[in-house]
Amino acid sequence: MAVEHIKHWKVGDVEIARIVEINNFEDDMSMLLPNATAEWVKTFDWLRPNFTTAAGRMLISFQAFVLRSKGKHIMIDTCIGSDRKREYDVFCNLKSTFLEDLTAAGFPANSINAVLCTHMHFDHVGWNTHLVNGKWVPTFQNARYLFNKVEWDHWKQLRDTGGYHHMDHLVDSIDPIVASGQVDCVDGEHRLTDEVSLIPTPGHTPGHVSVVIRSKGQEAVITGDMMHHPIQLATLDIEGNFDMDKAQGKKTRREFVERYADKSTLIIGSHFCDPTAGHIVRHGDSYRFNAK
After folding, report:
1. DSSP state, 48?
2. CATH code of 148's domain
């Protein structure tokens, strides 16, 4: 199924564009949920064809979002990035049209005023920088990069203590931003404009945030990795393999789902494949995602 790399939404006066770097990546659901089997995944028939394959395999995308609000251009997450060395081969030495897609969407890199990464995993910070004459330099020269202080402090501690996590992305995607003097540390409820603000959604990482857009009575939320796949709406009692604090991640997801279920709030899943956005609705004694 062909899916466009750029998609647009409007929430009140706020314009949102989605930029896809890796589309419809396929893997076993057991990568995300412990002990998940293909036959079990196939019982969630509402996930097909957008979010799972006929064979019960998981589909996710790696993508970023850019907003126009109150005259500002705001980048939300920056994907994996080109020319990187990463822990897994599939993410190494990528070549993509990310910057060209940004321009085509109406948000050229030099127009971006602020960059906010929902957290500091490698697939959300990569295009913070790009390679110029063998040196990693900020991609968004005119932007302030907003680091949630809780998140940044945690990653610094991991590096300083030889923590368990792979760290190469700090060297090429975070350190050059710090060196450039473009970083502002913010808290988990920071307001980027009168229409765009953060809410803490910890668990996947300690300082993880989601992004809330409210304008003219309309509302949307960009999830970040608070959830990775719509199946997690129906499996709230199952911890996610990718969460640093699995118990907290499960608690955060349940609170989020109960808050937004059966509401008009547009949920934009940061790893959800096309159509990416939709609504959380009650489904029997559980929940599901109604893609929009």
Report:
1. T
2. 3.60.15.10
